[in-house]
Design goal:
Elements (H helix, E strand, L loop, with lengths): L2 H23 L15 E8 L3 E8 L9 E6 L4 E5 L6 E8 L8 E5 L6 E8 L3 E7 L2
Parallel strand pairs: 1-7
Antiparallel strand pairs: 1-4, 2-3, 2-5, 5-6, 7-8
């Protein structure tokens, strides 16, 4: 099923459930949100021989892009995290290794904001840099 078709099916099902609840119970049923709570985070640990910037583009309801920000110049040995803003449904994180000559910045795409995500950064100057998913 395509993404758009699934979205339409979910909308139609949700609308039908709301109408059904209103008719029978006088109220509207609501499903739990798939969005993040502020307790969930994205964490990075740098074992890379670079200074590293991580820039977070949050996905979710209109206006959430105002909460985008960056962590800058994190050195080897540093560990840092970014909490998902309330209502976020995902994120795109751009990981930039200062002085890296092996290609464009790395991108991490997160589609599930309902849990924690941890990454280890590896690299040696000037042409090796990698982002590895690890257990939190």
């Amino acid at each position: 099923m395509t993404k758009n078709r699934m979205r339409r099916v979910r909308r139609a099902g949700g609308f039908g459930a709301a109408v059904f609840a209103t008719v029978l119970g006088g109220g509207i049923l609501t499903a739990p949100s798939a969005a993040a709570s502020a307790e969930n985070f994205v964490q990075f640990k740098s074992d890379a021989m670079y200074f590293v910037d991580t820039c977070y583009e949050w996905q979710g309801p209109e206006g959430i892009e105002k909460k985008n920000y960056c962590h800058n110049a994190k050195a080897v040995g540093a560990t840092w995290k970014a909490n998902f803003p309330e209502g976020a449904t995902g994120a795109t994180v751009k990981v930039t290794f200062a002085g890296y000559t092996g290609g464009p910045p790395k991108t991490v795409t997160i589609d599930d904001a309902g849990k924690n995500h941890c990454y280890q950064l590896k690299g040696t100057w000037p042409n090796y840099a990698d982002v590895l998913r690890v257990n939190c």
